[in-house]
Structures are given as C-alpha cells and as structure tokens.
# Entry
Amino acid sequence: MGKQMSLLRATGLALVSMVLSVPSVFAESYGGRVDGVGEVEVELVEKGTPSFPRRAKSYGVSGVVVVKFNVDIEGNAVGAVIVESKPRRLFDRSAMRYMDTLKFTPYETNGATVAVTDVVMSVVYRLKD
# Structure
C-alpha cells in the first residue's frame, strides 16, 4: 500500500508539474528509506554540475563515483559517503562537492516532513568528444 501511495503521489506531482510547464519529464528520482514507512522515492529538483578534475582531464580518463547519503527534512543531501569510485579517488573530491549542490523535494508522510536515509546516486564523469 505504501508503494502504491508513493507512486500515486509521484504521478500526481508529475502531472501538476507538466501542467505548470515545468520539464518534470526529465526529473530524476532516487530510492531511499523512511523509518516506519519503508522504501520511498525522493525527487531531485535542483543540482549543480560536477566539476571535471584537471588531473583526470589531462589523463583523458572518465569515471564514476557512487555516493550514499540522506535527505534531511529541508531536502538537502547530508551525510554523504563514497561507496565506490572508479578509478579510485580521482573523482571523489569533486563528487563530494557536487553533493552540496543537490536539492530534493522534502518527503512527507502523515502530514509531516521526514528524513530519507540510504539514498544512492552515481555521479558520472565523461570526457566530451
């Protein structure tokens, strides 16, 4: 029942966004957990651009950093930790700075905003051709 309500809520938000001419078709959402609720989705509404490290650019290397974090009641990404990075440590600092630019729609349950834990995101670094 909880997943169905989350899907209905997400679908309703997407429809409202389309009516308001907001390009929510391209909105990103990520799975996490809420105590007492279980698995939920949080929608990313604002983000910066990860900076490509000079050293990686000079080596001609692309990579990915997998980050695990929580979303607080204000929609900020907090408590980020690196789960995996390839190549190791080359993009870590940039990915952690990028986490500070993220803003999510705060998750609500029973009329109260709650924190979402264990959200996982991959930050991908690709050299432009």
